[in-house]
Amino acid sequence: MGIFLANVPHSSRTVLFRFLSGIPTTRSLLHHIVPPLVTSPKCSICRHHDESSVHLLFACPLKMWVWRLAWQKHFDTPFDSIQNVISSFTSWTWPPLRPGTPSLSAPLVLGTILAVIWSAHWHHVYDDIPFSAPNVLTSVNKSIQPLRDEPRLFYPATL
């Protein structure tokens, strides 16, 4: 199934497309292209690892913390590693959601998490807003809640 046919939020489609096609803008890439402007390939959040596309979106320790807790809250399978998330996006095989979330789909939830992490990352880079994993997780949950409530807005008597 293509990225544009899946129930992935619009806000995460470009990010996901760039990741899947291998062309995200990372510090490692920018450092290679314009070293005077990007003086280090290290992640601007954890400052320990070179910022590859996997690190940028998933493997930075603070982002992995968000992924792990969001996964545990919304999905009915254990979070073994960040590879669970990456393989969901790369193989288009989605984990089952926790019972009681019929209005949601796994691609919608995962895409929302990705969009919130992406937004928080760039707020850190451009606006000097610290990447706070607890705050990002709160934003994830606040972004997912309206998606849960959406069917009740249209069909309140049937729920």
Q: How would you characterize the overall build of this protein?
A:
By secondary structure, this protein is mainly α. The protein has a domain at about 10-20 and about 55-150. Helices cover about 60% and strands about 0% of the residues. It contains 7 helices and no strands. It has helices at about 10-20, 25-35, 55-60, 60-75, 80-90, 105-125, 135-155. The radius of gyration is 16 Å and the shape is globular.
What is the compact description of this entry?
This is Reverse transcriptase zinc-binding domain-containing protein. The protein is built from seven helices and no strands. It is mainly alpha-helical.
How widely separated are the two ends?
Answer: 31 Å
| Percent in strands | under 5%
User: Average pLDDT across residues?
Assistant: 86
Shape: globular
User: N-to-C SSE series?
Assistant: HHHHHHH
The main β sheet shows up as: none
How many DSSP H or I helices? Answer: 7
**What is the CA-atom radius of gyration, in angstroms?**
16 Å
Number of strands: 0
User: What is the percent of helical residues?
Assistant: 55-70%
Low-confidence stretches: none
Structural class: mainly alpha
Organism: Hesseltinella vesiculosa
Protein name: Reverse transcriptase zinc-binding domain-containing protein
